[in-house]
Design goal:
Two copies of one chain form a homodimer. By secondary structure, chain A is mostly helical. Chain A has two domains: 6-76, Arc Repressor Mutant, subunit A (Orthogonal Bundle); 81-225, GntR ligand-binding domain-like (Four Helix Bundle (Hemerythrin (Met), subunit A)). Helices cover 71% and strands 4% of the residues of chain A. Chain A is built from nine helices and three strands, in the order αβααββαααααα. Chain A has a three-stranded antiparallel beta sheet. In chain A, α4 packs across α6, α5 (108-127) packs antiparallel against α8 and α8 packs antiparallel against α9. The longest helix of chain A has 26 residues, at 200-225. Chain A starts with 13 loop residues before the first helix and ends with a helix. Chain A binds chain B through residues 1, 12-13, 16, 51, 54-55, 58-59, 62, 64, 67, 70-71, 80, 82-83, 86-87, 89-90, 93-94, 97, 101, 152-155, 157-158, 162-163, and chain B through 1-2, 12-13, 16, 51, 54-55, 58-59, 62, 64, 70-71, 80, 82-83, 86-87, 89-90, 93-94, 97, 101, 152-155, 157-158, 162-163. Chain A binds a DNA duplex (30 and 30 nucleotides) through α3. Chains A, B: GO terms for molecular function: DNA binding; DNA-binding transcription factor activity. Chains A, B: Residues 12-79 form the HTH gntR-type domain.
DNA sequence: CACGCTAAAATTGTCGACAATATACGCCTA
DNA sequence: TAGGCGTATATTGTCGACAATTTTAGCGTG
């Protein structure tokens, strides 16, 4: 049971590289949601054989970005309100647990690092008010740290490797530039404070609320865009 | 988002078949925990080429039965106390959530089915008192039903496809024939009652306790066997 | 014109061989 | 004899081609 997970590992094999490229393409909508995946086409596009490509597809299925049917091929996942709800329902619970465990297992040094990270975000955010991309990356970065702080490898694997690409996909393809930017920082602060105080129960609660608020925000976006 | 998951699907491809065979072999200790996986050897043993075998290995990694290192090969996972703890920590939370959602989403018909299932277990268990295998299968069956009842595809996928083979592996390789057999039935009854009453909060609590008790039981087994 | 059947095309699944990388062995040196 | 280096071996990663299956297109029939 090792704690550093593959997502942070830089690609060493051709399958790793093409995985990252396709992941990015799907998350950012470069390959349209719901569209069919053609192995021969992708193989040509990325200039490699089908063997490493299929390896990559297997991992894409693992993080729920594509759905495969035997002998019939793969499709990029479709975004839906029910899917979003199910995903965030899970996140609320899992990241709440992660917070509780982080309050038990994070070292003081790690907590200090996260606080420095938040200070950085605050500074850079004041400068480029409203640029959602940095906010988003920063938010994910914060969540990553806390999740890793749980020191539970299964939990880390599920959240960082299997669910987060899909979370990003929903965020990116739904815009995510609302007025929530500034409030999120305060919520992050409160969470890391609870963790620093070793108050797992509170950290759990605050994280659940934080994610619930984030979910409502995206749902609003969804309604406005018109499903 | 479809609710019936691959685990219940019968194998259609060669990779599917060999996956199931290797899964069983690892879970039951036929392939020793911690041992190295040799692709050429397994390919000969199951009489197929390395392509479908590697597909199977990718899925074995997904359900945490093996660990792969690029260019260096795969090893069967090692069982450990910390691993068991991390796994059950997650199960407590996730299956608790599953219960809460099941209380909201299960149909009356589905609840009736689960109750019939429990009656069957009780009858057959009275007959073959103490035979742990059936008990284990029955227990897992109950948990499966509840999890499916949550109607959350991500939750179902994580519990049934990714974590449960490992749970079974711990159970099988640690014996699991303790005196807990009879108490589990009562706990199952209480859980389905809570779900039937649409009391999600109570169902959540009871399931967490049920799994915590199960964990303590296995930990005891571990200590006795001598890690 | 719609429907079902048949045949052709395309796609996925599997195979055996080659290339790149890691492991194991033997040798040399201190 | 212990330790490090270089080669030999074995294993994993990748490739191109073939087999099996599905999808598509065309045809005939009701």
């Amino acid at each position: 049971m090792h704690l550093s997970h593959p997502a942070l590992r830089q690609p060493v094999t051709a399958a790793d590289r093409v995985l990252q490229e396709i992941q990015r393409a799907i998350v950012e909508g470069d390959i349209a949601a719901g569209s069919k995946i053609s192995e021969p086409e992708l193989a040509r596009r990325f200039d490699l054989s089908r063997a490493p490509l299929r390896e990559a597809l297997a991992r894409l299925e693992r993080c729920h970005l594509i759905e495969r049917i035997p002998n019939a091929g793969a499709r990029v996942v479709k975004l839906s309100t029910t899917g979003l709800l199910a995903l965030y329902q899970l996140r609320e619970n899992l990241e709440g647990l992660a917070c509780k465990l982080a309050a038990e297992h994070m070292t003081d040094a790690e907590i200090t690092e996260v606080r420095q990270l938040l200070d950085q975000h605050l500074a850079s955010q004041r400068v480029r008010e409203g640029e959602s991309y940095y906010q988003e990356a920063g938010d994910l970065d914060f969540h990553y740290r806390v999740i890793l702080g749980s020191k539970n490898s299964y939990l880390i694997n599920i959240l960082c490797d299997e669910l987060y690409y899909l979370v990003r996909m929903y965020r990116v393809q739904l815009g995510m530039n609302g007025p929530r930017v500034s409030r999120a920082f305060d919520e992050h602060k409160a969470i890391i404070n609870a963790i620093a105080n070793r108050d797992g129960e509170l950290a759990d609660l605050l994280m659940r609320r934080h994610i619930a608020a984030s979910r409502r925000n995206i749902e609003l976006q969804l309604e406005q865009t018109g499903t």
